[in-house]
Amino acid sequence: MDWQKREISFVVRIKKNLRLYTLQEFKPTHPSVIHDAKVLYGLSEIPIRYIEFLDEKGRSYRILTTRFDLTDLQVMEIYRNRWIIELFFKWIKQHLKLTKIWSTKPQGIWNQMFLALIAFGLSLIIKLQSGSIKTPWEFFRLLQTFLFHTVSSFIKSCIEKRKESQKEDKKYLFHYRRLCPALEQSPWLKKNKELILYVKKKGTRSI
To answer: In sequence order, what are the beta bridge partners of 50?
Structure first.
């Protein structure tokens, strides 16, 4: 494999039909591990590590890795956490809009990613300080709208939106209390926000 010649570390899953030739067996340190060995595969002359383990549902996974310095449990966890990494990059593409890279060099890609994360973090701090009830994405769009406006006008817009939402909640709560006066003194009504949202969905006409 070209990765081995270039000394690139990897953990990959292999198909069942790939033929392996065992050179040395290692004693598994985890009960889920079936095999842990140094092997050769195909026409390769460079030894590689082979680990086979079972998940909670009894499904078998065959893994090849160059990491002989890790335990079998660590290799298993690396493979299991691959989906978390995929979700992270999916989140970056959707929320940070990293659909187009500025540079093909690794350092340039890292710089772009760090700048996007810093921008997202700053927008989240401003959102918390302004007390906005918008989602992070809606708030980010609001920031783009007021990009060339003053900070005071932006904060004013956030406050006005929040006040409108609070007035709307009070309006629907008033209609519900008029329908059920017995709930007026209920401490549960004062704390439960789901009731307000339910009334919002039903609308005042149904009340």
So the answer is: 37, 64
Closest CA to 133 of 159, 172, 94, 168: 159
Cα torsion 194, 199, 201, 207 to 10°: value is: 160
Tens digit of each residue's pLDDT (9 = 90 or more) over 5-54: 888 888 888 888 888 888 999 998 888 899 999 999 877 788 999 999 98
Rounded to the nearest angstrom, the gap between the alpha carbon of residue 199 and the centroid of all alpha carbons in its chain is 32
The first and second tokens of residue 36, run together, are 């842990």
Q: Are 14 and 64 in contact (CB under 8 A)?
A: yes
pTM of the entire predicted model: 0.51
CA–CA dist 112, 97 (Å, integer): 11
Collect all residues with Cβ–Cβ distance below 8 Å to 184 and sequence separation of at least 6. 177
Give the residue from 177, 181, 187, 185 showing the smallest Cα distance to 196. Answer: 177
Query: What is d(CA 186, CA 161) in angstroms, rounded to the nearest whole number?
Result: 28
